[in-house]
Design a protein that fits this description.
heterodimer, A: 381 residues, mainly beta, 16-stranded antiparallel beta barrel, two-stranded antiparallel sheet, B: 149 residues, alpha/beta, 5 strands, 36% helix, Porin (chain A), Porin_dom_sf (chain A)
Chain lengths: 381, 149
Amino acid sequence: MKLFKVLTMLIATIVLPHSVFADVTFSGYGSIIAGKTFGTVDDPLNPGETRDEILTADFYDVGQYDNDIKFTPESLFALQALVDLGDDLKFTAQLVAKGTDDFEPEFDWYYLTYQVNDSWSVMAGRRNIPMYYYSEFSEVGYAYPWMRPPSNLYWWQVTQFNGFHASYDFELGDYSNNLTFFYGNENSYDNKEMLFYDELFGGNARSVDEFWSDILGFNWSIAGDDFEVRFVYFQNDRDRTTTAQDGTETDSVPFDQQFLGVGGYYNFNQFTFLFDWNQVEYDDAVGTEYPTYLVSLVYNIDDFQPYVVYSKADHEQTKTAAATKDLEEHYVLGFGVRYNFHPSASFKIQYDKFVEQGEESTGWAYHGDARALALGIDFIF
Amino acid sequence: MEKIQPKRNKPEKLIGLIFASLFIFISNIAFAEIAVIVHPENSSSLDKKAIKKIFMGKTKKFANGNVILPMNASKGAPSRDNFNELAIGRTTAQVNAYWSKLVFTGKGTMPRELTSDAEIIATVSANKGAISYVDASAVTDAVKVIATY
Protein backbone atom coordinates (compact mmCIF):
# COMPACT_ATOMS: atom_id res chain seq x y z
CA MET A 1 0.00 0.00 0.00
CA LYS A 2 2.84 2.34 0.92
CA LEU A 3 4.55 1.64 -2.40
CA PHE A 4 1.34 2.48 -4.23
CA LYS A 5 0.94 5.72 -2.31
CA VAL A 6 4.52 6.71 -3.05
CA LEU A 7 4.06 5.88 -6.74
CA THR A 8 0.89 7.92 -7.08
CA MET A 9 2.40 10.90 -5.29
CA LEU A 10 5.56 10.55 -7.36
CA ILE A 11 3.64 10.61 -10.64
CA ALA A 12 1.76 13.66 -9.39
CA THR A 13 4.95 15.50 -8.40
CA ILE A 14 6.61 14.69 -11.72
CA VAL A 15 3.63 15.89 -13.71
CA LEU A 16 2.71 18.91 -11.60
CA PRO A 17 5.81 21.13 -12.06
CA HIS A 18 5.39 20.87 -15.85
CA SER A 19 2.05 22.53 -15.57
CA VAL A 20 2.69 25.66 -13.58
CA PHE A 21 -0.45 27.11 -15.07
CA ALA A 22 -2.49 24.01 -14.28
CA ASP A 23 -6.02 24.82 -13.33
CA VAL A 24 -6.59 23.81 -9.69
CA THR A 25 -10.13 23.69 -8.35
CA PHE A 26 -10.89 23.29 -4.66
CA SER A 27 -14.18 21.95 -3.42
CA GLY A 28 -15.31 19.98 -0.44
CA TYR A 29 -18.01 18.64 1.79
CA GLY A 30 -18.71 18.21 5.46
CA SER A 31 -21.13 17.12 8.13
CA ILE A 32 -21.61 18.41 11.64
CA ILE A 33 -23.84 15.93 13.42
CA ALA A 34 -24.75 15.34 17.04
CA GLY A 35 -26.64 12.38 18.39
CA LYS A 36 -27.39 10.10 21.32
CA THR A 37 -29.20 6.91 22.23
CA PHE A 38 -31.99 6.55 24.78
CA GLY A 39 -32.01 4.12 27.69
CA THR A 40 -30.07 1.01 28.57
CA VAL A 41 -30.09 -2.66 27.51
CA ASP A 42 -28.98 -5.97 28.99
CA ASP A 43 -25.38 -6.32 27.81
CA PRO A 44 -25.45 -9.17 25.29
CA LEU A 45 -21.81 -10.05 25.98
CA ASN A 46 -21.95 -9.70 29.78
CA PRO A 47 -25.10 -11.47 30.98
CA GLY A 48 -26.56 -9.92 34.10
CA GLU A 49 -25.10 -6.49 33.39
CA THR A 50 -26.71 -3.52 31.69
CA ARG A 51 -25.12 -0.85 29.54
CA ASP A 52 -26.11 2.21 27.47
CA GLU A 53 -27.87 1.48 24.21
CA ILE A 54 -25.27 1.78 21.44
CA LEU A 55 -26.01 2.73 17.85
CA THR A 56 -23.11 2.17 15.50
CA ALA A 57 -23.43 4.96 12.95
CA ASP A 58 -20.16 4.10 11.23
CA PHE A 59 -18.82 0.53 11.45
CA TYR A 60 -15.58 1.09 9.51
CA ASP A 61 -14.49 4.02 11.69
CA VAL A 62 -16.21 2.65 14.82
CA GLY A 63 -18.38 5.75 15.23
CA GLN A 64 -20.89 4.93 17.98
CA TYR A 65 -23.56 6.85 19.83
CA ASP A 66 -24.38 6.14 23.47
CA ASN A 67 -26.46 8.00 26.10
CA ASP A 68 -24.17 11.04 26.08
CA ILE A 69 -24.60 13.59 23.30
CA LYS A 70 -21.67 13.12 20.92
CA PHE A 71 -20.39 15.05 17.90
CA THR A 72 -17.56 12.73 16.91
CA PRO A 73 -19.18 9.54 15.49
CA GLU A 74 -20.30 11.12 12.19
CA SER A 75 -18.93 14.65 11.90
CA LEU A 76 -16.30 15.13 9.22
CA PHE A 77 -14.75 17.64 6.82
CA ALA A 78 -13.24 16.98 3.41
CA LEU A 79 -11.28 19.18 1.04
CA GLN A 80 -10.87 18.09 -2.57
CA ALA A 81 -8.29 19.46 -4.98
CA LEU A 82 -8.79 18.80 -8.67
CA VAL A 83 -5.75 19.57 -10.77
CA ASP A 84 -6.46 19.84 -14.48
CA LEU A 85 -3.17 18.92 -16.07
CA GLY A 86 -4.46 19.54 -19.56
CA ASP A 87 -4.80 17.07 -22.43
CA ASP A 88 -7.66 15.27 -20.65
CA LEU A 89 -5.46 14.31 -17.67
CA LYS A 90 -6.56 15.21 -14.13
CA PHE A 91 -5.27 14.57 -10.65
CA THR A 92 -7.67 14.52 -7.70
CA ALA A 93 -6.88 14.32 -3.99
CA GLN A 94 -9.24 14.37 -1.03
CA LEU A 95 -8.12 15.26 2.46
CA VAL A 96 -10.64 13.97 5.00
CA ALA A 97 -10.77 14.80 8.73
CA LYS A 98 -13.15 12.63 10.77
CA GLY A 99 -14.42 13.03 14.30
CA THR A 100 -13.65 9.36 14.90
CA ASP A 101 -9.96 10.16 14.28
CA ASP A 102 -9.94 13.36 16.39
CA PHE A 103 -10.30 15.29 13.10
CA GLU A 104 -6.78 14.40 12.08
CA PRO A 105 -6.72 14.91 8.28
CA GLU A 106 -5.78 11.99 6.04
CA PHE A 107 -5.56 11.61 2.27
CA ASP A 108 -8.40 9.12 1.77
CA TRP A 109 -8.59 9.59 -1.99
CA TYR A 110 -5.92 10.33 -4.59
CA TYR A 111 -6.09 9.29 -8.21
CA LEU A 112 -5.30 10.21 -11.76
CA THR A 113 -8.07 10.33 -14.36
CA TYR A 114 -7.50 10.20 -18.08
CA GLN A 115 -10.41 10.86 -20.45
CA VAL A 116 -9.51 8.68 -23.42
CA ASN A 117 -12.44 9.85 -25.55
CA ASP A 118 -16.09 10.78 -25.05
CA SER A 119 -16.94 7.22 -23.95
CA TRP A 120 -13.88 5.83 -22.20
CA SER A 121 -12.03 7.08 -19.14
CA VAL A 122 -9.47 5.38 -16.92
CA MET A 123 -8.57 6.05 -13.29
CA ALA A 124 -5.64 4.86 -11.22
CA GLY A 125 -5.22 5.51 -7.53
CA ARG A 126 -6.87 5.25 -4.18
CA ARG A 127 -10.63 5.50 -3.81
CA ASN A 128 -13.64 3.74 -2.29
CA ILE A 129 -14.54 0.25 -3.47
CA PRO A 130 -17.80 0.51 -5.46
CA MET A 131 -19.60 -2.08 -3.35
CA TYR A 132 -23.06 -1.01 -2.21
CA TYR A 133 -24.98 1.60 -4.19
CA TYR A 134 -23.91 4.34 -1.74
CA SER A 135 -20.39 3.05 -0.97
CA GLU A 136 -18.45 5.46 -3.16
CA PHE A 137 -20.08 8.56 -1.68
CA SER A 138 -21.16 7.19 1.71
CA GLU A 139 -19.39 10.04 3.50
CA VAL A 140 -20.86 12.83 1.34
CA GLY A 141 -23.91 13.43 3.50
CA TYR A 142 -25.20 16.14 1.15
CA ALA A 143 -25.59 13.56 -1.66
CA TYR A 144 -28.40 11.49 -0.09
CA PRO A 145 -31.54 12.24 1.91
CA TRP A 146 -30.75 10.29 5.09
CA MET A 147 -28.39 11.02 7.95
CA ARG A 148 -26.23 8.15 6.64
CA PRO A 149 -26.60 5.17 4.33
CA PRO A 150 -28.03 2.48 6.67
CA SER A 151 -25.01 1.66 8.80
CA ASN A 152 -25.99 -1.93 9.54
CA LEU A 153 -25.35 -2.78 5.85
CA TYR A 154 -22.17 -0.73 5.49
CA TRP A 155 -20.40 -2.85 8.07
CA TRP A 156 -17.22 -3.95 6.26
CA GLN A 157 -13.79 -3.35 7.77
CA VAL A 158 -12.41 -2.45 4.35
CA THR A 159 -13.99 0.33 2.27
CA GLN A 160 -11.12 1.65 0.14
CA PHE A 161 -8.55 0.18 -2.20
CA ASN A 162 -5.67 1.04 -4.48
CA GLY A 163 -6.69 0.16 -7.97
CA PHE A 164 -7.42 0.76 -11.56
CA HIS A 165 -10.78 1.55 -13.21
CA ALA A 166 -11.86 1.58 -16.82
CA SER A 167 -15.18 3.29 -17.39
CA TYR A 168 -17.32 3.16 -20.53
CA ASP A 169 -20.35 5.42 -21.12
CA PHE A 170 -22.88 4.45 -23.77
CA GLU A 171 -26.49 5.01 -24.77
CA LEU A 172 -28.90 2.10 -25.07
CA GLY A 173 -32.25 3.22 -26.39
CA ASP A 174 -33.24 6.21 -24.28
CA TYR A 175 -31.06 5.19 -21.36
CA SER A 176 -27.62 6.35 -20.29
CA ASN A 177 -25.40 3.40 -19.42
CA ASN A 178 -22.07 3.16 -17.66
CA LEU A 179 -19.91 0.07 -17.37
CA THR A 180 -16.95 0.29 -14.99
CA PHE A 181 -14.42 -2.49 -14.58
CA PHE A 182 -12.14 -2.35 -11.57
CA TYR A 183 -9.15 -4.17 -10.13
CA GLY A 184 -7.19 -3.46 -6.98
CA ASN A 185 -5.85 -4.45 -3.57
CA GLU A 186 -6.10 -3.25 -0.01
CA ASN A 187 -3.71 -4.07 2.81
CA SER A 188 -5.36 -2.57 5.87
CA TYR A 189 -2.68 -2.66 8.55
CA ASP A 190 -3.88 -2.14 12.11
CA ASN A 191 -7.53 -2.26 11.09
CA LYS A 192 -9.62 -0.19 13.49
CA GLU A 193 -12.86 -2.15 13.20
CA MET A 194 -11.21 -5.58 13.57
CA LEU A 195 -9.22 -4.49 16.64
CA PHE A 196 -12.45 -3.15 18.13
CA TYR A 197 -14.11 -6.58 17.71
CA ASP A 198 -11.07 -8.34 19.14
CA GLU A 199 -11.38 -6.24 22.30
CA LEU A 200 -15.18 -6.49 22.39
CA PHE A 201 -14.99 -10.28 22.49
CA GLY A 202 -12.37 -10.28 25.26
CA GLY A 203 -9.23 -10.37 23.09
CA ASN A 204 -5.98 -8.61 23.81
CA ALA A 205 -4.43 -8.27 20.36
CA ARG A 206 -1.90 -5.56 19.57
CA SER A 207 -3.20 -5.24 16.03
CA VAL A 208 -5.27 -6.96 13.37
CA ASP A 209 -4.22 -6.64 9.71
CA GLU A 210 -6.86 -7.25 7.07
CA PHE A 211 -5.93 -8.03 3.47
CA TRP A 212 -8.33 -7.89 0.53
CA SER A 213 -6.40 -8.82 -2.58
CA ASP A 214 -7.21 -9.21 -6.27
CA ILE A 215 -10.44 -7.25 -5.96
CA LEU A 216 -11.88 -7.72 -9.44
CA GLY A 217 -15.33 -6.75 -10.63
CA PHE A 218 -17.64 -4.39 -12.44
CA ASN A 219 -20.53 -1.96 -12.03
CA TRP A 220 -23.22 -1.49 -14.65
CA SER A 221 -25.59 1.40 -14.20
CA ILE A 222 -28.61 2.22 -16.36
CA ALA A 223 -30.24 5.62 -15.93
CA GLY A 224 -33.38 7.13 -17.41
CA ASP A 225 -35.20 10.36 -16.68
CA ASP A 226 -36.73 9.05 -13.48
CA PHE A 227 -34.64 6.11 -12.41
CA GLU A 228 -31.26 4.52 -12.05
CA VAL A 229 -30.43 0.85 -11.56
CA ARG A 230 -26.91 -0.30 -10.78
CA PHE A 231 -25.60 -3.85 -10.76
CA VAL A 232 -22.39 -4.80 -8.99
CA TYR A 233 -20.28 -7.90 -8.91
CA PHE A 234 -16.78 -8.38 -7.54
CA GLN A 235 -14.65 -11.04 -5.97
CA ASN A 236 -11.50 -10.96 -3.90
CA ASP A 237 -9.23 -12.99 -1.60
CA ARG A 238 -9.45 -12.41 2.14
CA ASP A 239 -6.61 -12.85 4.62
CA ARG A 240 -6.16 -11.71 8.19
CA THR A 241 -3.19 -11.58 10.56
CA THR A 242 -3.70 -11.04 14.28
CA THR A 243 -0.67 -9.89 16.26
CA ALA A 244 -0.67 -10.59 20.00
CA GLN A 245 0.92 -8.30 22.60
CA ASP A 246 4.08 -10.44 22.59
CA GLY A 247 4.37 -10.08 18.81
CA THR A 248 3.13 -13.57 17.95
CA GLU A 249 1.33 -13.51 14.61
CA THR A 250 -1.64 -15.76 13.84
CA ASP A 251 -2.96 -16.02 10.29
CA SER A 252 -6.63 -16.77 9.70
CA VAL A 253 -7.59 -19.36 7.10
CA PRO A 254 -7.84 -17.43 3.82
CA PHE A 255 -10.96 -17.63 1.65
CA ASP A 256 -12.53 -16.05 -1.41
CA GLN A 257 -15.37 -13.55 -1.19
CA GLN A 258 -18.03 -12.79 -3.79
CA PHE A 259 -20.15 -9.65 -3.70
CA LEU A 260 -23.36 -9.27 -5.71
CA GLY A 261 -25.89 -6.46 -5.68
CA VAL A 262 -28.53 -4.38 -7.37
CA GLY A 263 -29.59 -0.94 -6.18
CA GLY A 264 -30.94 2.37 -7.36
CA TYR A 265 -33.85 4.76 -7.22
CA TYR A 266 -37.13 5.53 -8.94
CA ASN A 267 -38.84 8.95 -8.93
CA PHE A 268 -42.63 9.09 -9.27
CA ASN A 269 -44.61 12.25 -8.75
CA GLN A 270 -43.22 13.76 -5.58
CA PHE A 271 -41.86 10.48 -4.23
CA THR A 272 -38.47 8.84 -4.55
CA PHE A 273 -38.15 5.12 -3.88
CA LEU A 274 -34.63 3.91 -3.08
CA PHE A 275 -33.45 0.33 -2.78
CA ASP A 276 -30.33 -1.81 -2.53
CA TRP A 277 -30.12 -5.58 -2.34
CA ASN A 278 -26.85 -7.40 -1.80
CA GLN A 279 -25.50 -10.89 -1.26
CA VAL A 280 -21.99 -11.63 0.04
CA GLU A 281 -20.69 -15.20 0.00
CA TYR A 282 -17.48 -16.77 1.29
CA ASP A 283 -16.07 -20.04 0.02
CA ASP A 284 -15.02 -20.87 3.60
CA ALA A 285 -15.62 -24.20 5.35
CA VAL A 286 -18.93 -23.13 6.89
CA GLY A 287 -20.42 -21.46 3.79
CA THR A 288 -20.85 -17.96 5.22
CA GLU A 289 -23.46 -15.77 3.53
CA TYR A 290 -24.59 -12.20 4.20
CA PRO A 291 -27.91 -11.31 2.54
CA THR A 292 -28.78 -7.63 3.09
CA TYR A 293 -31.22 -5.08 1.70
CA LEU A 294 -32.61 -1.61 2.20
CA VAL A 295 -35.79 0.11 1.06
CA SER A 296 -36.64 3.75 1.55
CA LEU A 297 -39.35 6.18 0.56
CA VAL A 298 -38.73 9.94 0.37
CA TYR A 299 -41.44 12.56 -0.10
CA ASN A 300 -40.15 15.67 -1.89
CA ILE A 301 -42.13 18.75 -0.93
CA ASP A 302 -40.33 21.96 -1.89
CA ASP A 303 -37.28 22.19 0.33
CA PHE A 304 -38.42 19.41 2.67
CA GLN A 305 -37.75 15.71 2.25
CA PRO A 306 -39.38 13.61 4.95
CA TYR A 307 -38.40 9.95 4.62
CA VAL A 308 -38.58 6.46 6.06
CA VAL A 309 -35.77 3.92 5.62
CA TYR A 310 -35.63 0.22 6.53
CA SER A 311 -32.47 -1.86 6.32
CA LYS A 312 -32.04 -5.53 7.14
CA ALA A 313 -28.79 -7.44 7.56
CA ASP A 314 -28.42 -11.17 8.00
CA HIS A 315 -25.56 -13.63 8.48
CA GLU A 316 -25.96 -17.32 7.80
CA GLN A 317 -23.91 -20.50 7.62
CA THR A 318 -25.02 -22.88 4.91
CA LYS A 319 -22.44 -25.67 5.16
CA THR A 320 -22.14 -26.39 8.87
CA ALA A 321 -23.51 -29.64 10.34
CA ALA A 322 -26.35 -27.66 11.84
CA ALA A 323 -26.66 -25.04 9.10
CA THR A 324 -27.98 -21.94 10.78
CA LYS A 325 -29.74 -18.80 9.66
CA ASP A 326 -29.63 -17.29 13.12
CA LEU A 327 -26.23 -15.67 13.53
CA GLU A 328 -25.78 -11.91 13.28
CA GLU A 329 -29.13 -10.45 12.28
CA HIS A 330 -30.66 -7.02 12.76
CA TYR A 331 -32.79 -4.34 11.19
CA VAL A 332 -32.84 -0.57 11.48
CA LEU A 333 -36.00 1.45 10.97
CA GLY A 334 -35.33 5.15 10.56
CA PHE A 335 -37.57 8.20 10.19
CA GLY A 336 -36.31 11.63 9.40
CA VAL A 337 -36.49 14.78 7.41
CA ARG A 338 -34.00 16.67 5.31
CA TYR A 339 -34.56 20.42 5.00
CA ASN A 340 -32.65 22.16 2.20
CA PHE A 341 -32.48 25.54 3.87
CA HIS A 342 -29.62 26.78 1.68
CA PRO A 343 -28.43 25.99 -1.91
CA SER A 344 -25.32 24.27 -0.48
CA ALA A 345 -26.43 23.05 2.92
CA SER A 346 -29.17 20.95 4.41
CA PHE A 347 -30.40 20.28 7.90
CA LYS A 348 -31.29 16.70 8.82
CA ILE A 349 -32.89 15.05 11.78
CA GLN A 350 -33.30 11.28 12.04
CA TYR A 351 -34.65 8.86 14.60
CA ASP A 352 -33.45 5.27 14.39
CA LYS A 353 -34.66 2.08 15.95
CA PHE A 354 -32.06 -0.70 15.83
CA VAL A 355 -33.54 -4.12 16.56
CA GLU A 356 -31.21 -7.00 17.44
CA GLN A 357 -32.49 -10.28 15.97
CA GLY A 358 -29.44 -12.52 16.31
CA GLU A 359 -29.40 -15.70 18.36
CA GLU A 360 -27.79 -14.79 21.68
CA SER A 361 -26.28 -18.22 22.33
CA THR A 362 -24.14 -17.92 19.18
CA GLY A 363 -22.36 -14.80 20.47
CA TRP A 364 -23.32 -12.91 17.32
CA ALA A 365 -26.09 -10.89 18.95
CA TYR A 366 -23.55 -8.39 20.26
CA HIS A 367 -25.22 -5.12 19.23
CA GLY A 368 -28.31 -5.07 21.41
CA ASP A 369 -31.38 -2.94 20.71
CA ALA A 370 -30.94 0.81 20.45
CA ARG A 371 -32.98 3.92 19.80
CA ALA A 372 -31.10 6.99 18.68
CA LEU A 373 -31.72 10.54 17.60
CA ALA A 374 -29.22 12.43 15.46
CA LEU A 375 -29.40 15.89 13.94
CA GLY A 376 -27.02 18.08 12.04
CA ILE A 377 -26.00 19.89 8.90
CA ASP A 378 -24.46 18.56 5.68
CA PHE A 379 -22.81 21.01 3.30
CA ILE A 380 -20.80 21.26 0.11
CA PHE A 381 -18.58 24.00 -1.20
CA MET B 1 -33.66 -10.94 41.47
CA GLU B 2 -36.32 -8.69 40.15
CA LYS B 3 -35.39 -7.12 36.87
CA ILE B 4 -35.47 -3.35 36.77
CA GLN B 5 -37.22 -2.02 33.71
CA PRO B 6 -34.91 0.37 31.85
CA LYS B 7 -36.19 3.91 31.80
CA ARG B 8 -37.41 4.76 28.34
CA ASN B 9 -37.69 8.25 26.95
CA LYS B 10 -40.30 9.01 24.32
CA PRO B 11 -38.62 10.77 21.39
CA GLU B 12 -41.27 9.34 19.03
CA LYS B 13 -43.80 12.00 20.02
CA LEU B 14 -41.42 14.85 19.27
CA ILE B 15 -40.60 13.41 15.85
CA GLY B 16 -44.29 13.13 15.02
CA LEU B 17 -44.79 16.76 15.91
CA ILE B 18 -41.90 17.88 13.70
CA PHE B 19 -43.26 15.87 10.76
CA ALA B 20 -46.75 17.28 11.17
CA SER B 21 -45.49 20.85 11.20
CA LEU B 22 -43.42 20.28 8.06
CA PHE B 23 -46.39 19.29 5.94
CA ILE B 24 -47.98 22.67 6.56
CA PHE B 25 -45.46 24.42 4.33
CA ILE B 26 -46.75 24.79 0.79
CA SER B 27 -45.47 27.52 -1.46
CA ASN B 28 -46.34 28.84 -4.89
CA ILE B 29 -43.40 29.98 -6.97
CA ALA B 30 -43.90 32.17 -10.02
CA PHE B 31 -41.40 31.41 -12.78
CA ALA B 32 -39.85 34.02 -15.05
CA GLU B 33 -39.19 32.78 -18.59
CA ILE B 34 -35.77 31.22 -19.06
CA ALA B 35 -33.84 31.19 -22.35
CA VAL B 36 -31.16 28.59 -23.06
CA ILE B 37 -28.35 30.18 -25.07
CA VAL B 38 -25.34 29.10 -27.14
CA HIS B 39 -22.74 30.80 -29.35
CA PRO B 40 -24.35 32.32 -32.50
CA GLU B 41 -22.26 30.03 -34.73
CA ASN B 42 -23.31 26.89 -32.88
CA SER B 43 -25.53 25.00 -35.31
CA SER B 44 -26.08 21.90 -33.15
CA SER B 45 -29.73 21.09 -32.81
CA LEU B 46 -30.53 20.43 -29.17
CA ASP B 47 -33.98 19.53 -27.91
CA LYS B 48 -35.01 19.87 -24.28
CA LYS B 49 -34.03 16.29 -23.56
CA ALA B 50 -30.52 16.93 -24.89
CA ILE B 51 -30.24 20.12 -22.81
CA LYS B 52 -31.19 18.19 -19.68
CA LYS B 53 -28.53 15.56 -20.42
CA ILE B 54 -25.87 18.24 -20.87
CA PHE B 55 -26.66 19.87 -17.52
CA MET B 56 -26.66 16.49 -15.77
CA GLY B 57 -23.21 15.71 -17.14
CA LYS B 58 -24.39 12.83 -19.31
CA THR B 59 -23.51 14.41 -22.67
CA LYS B 60 -20.03 15.90 -22.92
CA LYS B 61 -19.63 16.66 -26.63
CA PHE B 62 -21.70 18.23 -29.40
CA ALA B 63 -22.57 16.18 -32.51
CA ASN B 64 -19.66 17.90 -34.31
CA GLY B 65 -17.23 16.61 -31.67
CA ASN B 66 -16.65 19.91 -29.86
CA VAL B 67 -16.46 19.74 -26.08
CA ILE B 68 -19.56 21.20 -24.39
CA LEU B 69 -18.95 23.86 -21.72
CA PRO B 70 -22.15 24.07 -19.68
CA MET B 71 -22.34 27.05 -17.32
CA ASN B 72 -24.65 27.76 -14.42
CA ALA B 73 -25.96 30.98 -12.95
CA SER B 74 -24.64 31.71 -9.45
CA LYS B 75 -25.89 29.86 -6.38
CA GLY B 76 -29.14 31.36 -5.21
CA ALA B 77 -29.85 33.13 -8.53
CA PRO B 78 -33.60 32.88 -9.39
CA SER B 79 -32.72 31.84 -12.97
CA ARG B 80 -30.78 28.84 -11.64
CA ASP B 81 -33.69 27.69 -9.48
CA ASN B 82 -36.09 28.17 -12.39
CA PHE B 83 -33.85 26.36 -14.86
CA ASN B 84 -33.41 23.40 -12.49
CA GLU B 85 -37.16 23.16 -11.87
CA LEU B 86 -38.18 23.55 -15.53
CA ALA B 87 -35.36 21.97 -17.53
CA ILE B 88 -34.15 19.29 -15.12
CA GLY B 89 -37.34 18.81 -13.15
CA ARG B 90 -35.72 18.97 -9.72
CA THR B 91 -35.05 21.56 -7.04
CA THR B 92 -31.63 23.21 -6.96
CA ALA B 93 -30.82 21.29 -3.77
CA GLN B 94 -31.65 17.98 -5.50
CA VAL B 95 -29.54 18.90 -8.53
CA ASN B 96 -26.64 19.90 -6.25
CA ALA B 97 -26.98 16.62 -4.35
CA TYR B 98 -26.85 14.73 -7.66
CA TRP B 99 -23.69 16.61 -8.66
CA SER B 100 -21.98 16.22 -5.29
CA LYS B 101 -22.19 12.46 -5.79
CA LEU B 102 -20.36 12.77 -9.13
CA VAL B 103 -17.87 15.47 -8.11
CA PHE B 104 -16.60 13.72 -4.97
CA THR B 105 -16.24 10.32 -6.63
CA GLY B 106 -14.28 11.68 -9.60
CA LYS B 107 -17.07 11.05 -12.09
CA GLY B 108 -17.86 14.56 -13.17
CA THR B 109 -17.07 18.24 -12.96
CA MET B 110 -19.96 20.50 -12.08
CA PRO B 111 -20.82 23.22 -14.61
CA ARG B 112 -18.85 26.40 -13.94
CA GLU B 113 -20.69 29.22 -12.18
CA LEU B 114 -20.99 32.75 -13.54
CA THR B 115 -22.19 35.68 -11.48
CA SER B 116 -24.73 37.54 -13.64
CA ASP B 117 -26.81 37.33 -16.82
CA ALA B 118 -24.47 39.90 -18.39
CA GLU B 119 -21.39 37.79 -17.60
CA ILE B 120 -23.16 34.67 -18.91
CA ILE B 121 -23.97 36.38 -22.22
CA ALA B 122 -20.43 37.72 -22.55
CA THR B 123 -18.92 34.29 -21.86
CA VAL B 124 -21.28 32.37 -24.15
CA SER B 125 -20.75 34.85 -27.00
CA ALA B 126 -16.98 34.31 -26.68
CA ASN B 127 -16.96 30.48 -26.46
CA LYS B 128 -18.14 28.28 -29.32
CA GLY B 129 -18.71 25.29 -26.98
CA ALA B 130 -20.56 27.21 -24.28
CA ILE B 131 -24.17 26.64 -23.27
CA SER B 132 -25.98 28.44 -20.48
CA TYR B 133 -29.27 30.12 -19.62
CA VAL B 134 -30.48 33.59 -18.65
CA ASP B 135 -33.71 35.35 -17.85
CA ALA B 136 -35.41 35.68 -21.28
CA SER B 137 -35.56 39.47 -20.91
CA ALA B 138 -31.74 39.66 -20.73
CA VAL B 139 -31.09 38.00 -24.14
CA THR B 140 -29.11 40.05 -26.72
CA ASP B 141 -28.02 39.50 -30.35
CA ALA B 142 -24.61 38.29 -29.14
CA VAL B 143 -26.04 34.83 -28.39
CA LYS B 144 -28.44 32.36 -29.97
CA VAL B 145 -31.53 31.13 -28.12
CA ILE B 146 -32.13 27.40 -28.66
CA ALA B 147 -34.95 26.80 -26.19
CA THR B 148 -37.20 28.62 -23.76
CA TYR B 149 -39.00 27.36 -20.67
